[in-house]
Here is the input.
Amino acid sequence: MPPRRKKKHKVVMRRTRVAYRWRFFGETMALWFKRLVFVGSAMGLAWGAYGVWEKAVLLTVTGVEVQGPLLSGWAEAPPVKKGQPLFSFSVDQIEQRIRERYPQLRSVRVRRAWDRSVRIQLELRTPVAKISVGPDRWNGVDSGGVLFPLEGAGAHLPILSLPKEEGTTATALPFLAALRAAKESWTDGLYKLKISSDGDGVLYLAGDVPLHWGKIRTDPHLVAQKARRFGRVLLEPEAIGGIDNARFVDDHRVVIQPRGTVVQKKERHG
Here is the structure.
């Protein structure tokens, strides 16, 4: 009986080794099969991407539609041209290039359309004043203080004469906004605001009439109060024929010189 048991044990051990070898062989083959499938899939994707790219190159821009103002130099060097590959450019990069080229634009939007055309939407900044940068050359200033080349002379815009453009637009622009909000008729004739280094301002009105305003402050209530006071003085009989200049003695009193009179003899206090 004991010898027979030993023989059965040997047979079981041999069968276990064979099963292990077959299992190891199967696992190895499965691993290599997965690797081959992965390599084949990668090659297939690469080939497919190459085919898609070739077809994409054949897709060209059928037209460019610009919605917005016609800017100088655009026709000579457009950012997107008809006939170029439709997917040869990045929309974000084109928008960034247009903004850098034309700082007077407030917003730029570039989109590809289903008919393979490209649509570009442009919106200009709205200038609220202008600053001279040379003979017959002006920079516009928007409500946020951004400077940009002004298209045209902008005759209706008030001129800013500032000691330091970057440092004082933060005061000049809120002051102009408060002055417009006062809605006094005389403010329509404002064509220049000059601010000195100590913060005093002179408003030049229609007819080159200087109004010495005093300290330029941005408090809307104070600006509106002074604007109304000066407006009432302009309605006085002494000012009907026009004035040569005016000056705020303080925030509550203004002195005017009627046109064609001597300052010492004909002053009007309001």
